[in-house]
Structures are given as C-alpha cells and as structure tokens.
C-alpha cells in the first residue's frame, strides 16, 4: 500500500482571514495549519460548504413537477454543488398526496443511485400541504390540496422517501397540530412553522409540542396583519424557534432582516427557497401553475402581469450572502456561517464542525471580486466537484 491519498489546499480562513493550509484525507479534514501568505496575495478564501434547507429546483428542473427523473435530481445536485452548496434539502411543496409520494420517492431513488447525490441531499423538506388555507398565508401553494395534518398520509410519504423527510413545514392553526407535531418530533423530523395564519396561542402550543424552526419568516404571510399580536412577532419572540430567512434583497426589506438578526442573533439561518427558474438567463418564462413570470437582469423574479408580485426566489445562497454583505447587515464571515455551519448544526449534520480537524471535507474556495462572490473550487467529502 502506498499510504493514504492526501489533498492539500491553501486559502484564507473565512472567519479569521489568516492564511491556512488544509490537509484532507479519506473525505475528512485532517489538519488546518497556519502558513505564510504568498507575497502576491493570490490566495482564495476557504470556507465550509453551504447548506441550504430549502430548494425547489434549479436550472429548469423542478422538484415539484412530474415527470421528475432521478437523473434530473442528480443534475441539480452537481450544478448547485459547483456554486458551493454541498448539502441541501430538496423541497416538495403542497400537491396531491399521490404526487408528493411520487416526488419524494424519486428524490430518494436519486440518492440511492448516485453516491454524490446521496451525500449532498441531507434530507427532504416537505412544505405543506398541512398549511393555512388562507390567501396570502398560503402563498402560491394550491388551495385544492391544503389539508389538516394527517399522520397516516405523512407516514406514507416517509415510507416512499425511505425515511429521508427531515423537515416538515406546516401551520399550527389546525386543531390536531400539537399532537401531530409531537409525533413528528419524536421521529426526529424537524417541524417548521410556515405559511401560517395561526394565533399566538396556536404558535405557543406548536412550540410546546416540539416545533423548532420558522420557514422563510416574514414571507408566505398575509399582506395585512394586526399590528400586534401577530404570528410574526410571536415567532420572533419565541426562543425555541430558529428562523430561516430569504436574504436575496427582494423578499424582505433590510430593516426587517436587521431586526431578525438582532432578535434571533445566532439562531437566524439563510435559505435560498429557489424555484426551478433559478440559474437560468433573464427573460420571460411560462410556468405551469403561476402563468407567465419575468426574471430580471438583477435576479428578481416577478409575475408578468404585476411586477410588484414576486414569483419566488431565483437565487442560490451565494447571492444571499452577497446581499447581506453589500447591505452591511453583517460581516462576510457571519453571512457565510448563517448559510453553512449554522443550518448544519441546527440539523445535526457533521458539516457543523466547519473548517476544523475531523470535519467532513466539504469546502469552498472563492474570491470576492468587488461585491461578487466568485466560487473557484468546491469539494464534497474531499472530492473535487
Ligand atoms: Zn414557502
């Protein structure tokens, strides 16, 4: 035997800014050691891989539309890995029970038939159909399929998914929600509150039953709310809830992001919530459910008939990090953490160990060009993507 294969990378530690040499073997970080910076200052930044808790699709491939092939899921995995996303939760939204079952089954099969996909998909996020039937709160989810929490149904999907459903977004406004949430929690499924018009009491009952996350807080909400109390204040005030936010600059005003950061500090996480049109060129597109939509050169996605109405997010995590940094809401290191080690820690993934000895070698090398984040190289479990 010639001994173990070593990969050595040099870069600036994303947190400290100090030049480091990262030694990788057998998929793990073996050592992170300080080095002298090269005189020409050419070292890229080096950081743990990004972790996205909510992605609906990419590059024209939609996790929510049949037919979906295992190859398509694998293609999304490779494409977003190149953007630095080394762990993610494909998100299947409100649909007919049969279609949800099929879709999660195909995603599970994609994991089983391709090692990289199996490693990158940390779990499946099912968003709905146990959400609010109310307009505004329901967002773009089809009212036809919105229904009260149903344990039998959920078990059916979980079987089809081979136990891979790790996050479930629901609204606790249904009478049986606390009981259902307690069952999910007992099985290790993270229950997230979203697309809700629940009362503060119902939110508190959900938290008491085990809900621990808020899905895209501040979005998927009614346009008009009582000033207080309301479900946004209640979730912000709940110490047990770790919220996710879409920080693309289009979904939430900077003042709201700032308040979320202050109120939730180390608990706030960033998700892309990207739809299948993400990664495509600006232009007008036809969507099967939402009609015509427009993706602007700035990266904003809106309905064609009314530019004021967003049609989902079209950006991946690096774009969200850029926005947080550009708007000076936090440091680049903090923004990166909110999109990598923090969601990893929240979901109990080994990637939570970050840029440290023993961590999985999920690594991103990148440069900042002005305020653009340019990804150079990405490693998943030590293998170059
Ligand atoms: Zn949503």
From TrEMBL:
It holds the Pfam family Amidohydro_1. Residues 46-382 form the Amidohydrolase-related domain. Its EC number is 3.5.1.25. GO terms for molecular function: N-acetylglucosamine-6-phosphate deacetylase activity. Keywords: Carbohydrate metabolism, Hydrolase, Metal-binding. It is an enzyme of class 3 (hydrolase). Gene3D superfamilies: Metal-dependent hydrolases (3.20.20.140). Signal peptide: none annotated. The keyword Hydrolase applies. SUPFAM superfamilies: Metallo-dependent hydrolases (SSF51556). Belongs to the metallo-dependent hydrolases superfamily. NagA family. This is N-acetylglucosamine-6-phosphate deacetylase.
